[in-house]
Amino acid sequence: MSVPCFLSSAARSFSVSGPAASLFCRRLLSPSTVTRRNMSSKRQMDHLEKTASNSRQNALYPAEVCGIINESETVKRLRIAVHPDFSFKAGQWVDFFIPGVEKVGGFSMCSSPGLLQREGVIELAVKYTKHPPAHWVHTMCTVGSRVAMRVGGDFFFDPSPSDPSVDLLLVAGGVGINPLYSILLHAVDLLHLNQSSGGRDYNIGSTHLCYSAKNSHELLFKSSITEACREFPDKFSCDFHVTQQSTDVDPHLEPFINRGRITKEELRAHVDPQRTLCYLCGPPPMLEAISKTLTDLGLSKDRILFEKWW
């Protein structure tokens, strides 16, 4: 259920205290203790272990859930009011600390830095699993729940006005769409800035999204993605791939639907070795296959960026 979002004074003044603060501070001051544990091949690596080598901000910020939306049958989108000093780059993730939950979550932002500037909120889309942080989101989180977050990640799109234009190729599998959707929304925001300034701000090239899921019901954010394609047809395009579609597709979505996996031919049409910058996020086997295909098409490895920890 969608809940109107507002920044309450509680969200602005919330501080982490008591036992929760001790836990958060121990994790902040002693991250190396995470990597010294003996890891069993039978135990799934925790988020902090997976991302131990990634860049992180030092600050841990309090936050308050101010909206919950059922994005799909298995994904909830949280709308979260954050501290005024909180900032992130499109594509980054947060360490997600929940009072009373020992495990730390790792969730990519699925909103743009522009939304944060305009409304003081970020959004996270979390798929249901039994992992404690995700399980908490789906079973215990309510509007008003308080958490703490720290931004991290080396996977982001953050161009400066002086940067040369690049064409983006975004390739997503499943919930790997989250950071790529943030990047797409950031590109939309920059185009809107250019419109208001007469095109004097950012050199924005084209963006093509290849997004694969089992069926059209599991394609997240599809309405706003297609809206961007229709608003800026010379800048945005997308192909939704469904691999196990058993029902009819919405007629409005049909022009964007491809049945089957992402093909080399489709990628070839959107790869220019001199201009293309590719961001990948999805299951590891998919990342490996797409990355190899892109290098076969002449795209250098430094122009293929991927998020693999999730």
Automatic annotation (TrEMBL):
It holds the Pfam family NAD_binding_1. InterPro entries: FAD-bd_FR_type, FNR_nucleotide-bd, Oxidoreductase_NAD-binding, OxRdtase_FAD/NAD-bd, Riboflavin_synthase-like_b-brl. Signal peptide: none annotated. The keyword Transferase does not apply. GO terms for cellular component: mitochondrion. Keywords: NAD, Oxidoreductase. GO terms for molecular function: oxidoreductase activity. Gene3D superfamilies: Nucleotide-binding domain of ferredoxin-NADP reductase (FNR) module, Translation factors. Residues 58-159 form the FAD-binding FR-type domain. This is Oxidoreductase NAD-binding domain-containing protein 1. It comes from Seriola lalandi dorsalis.
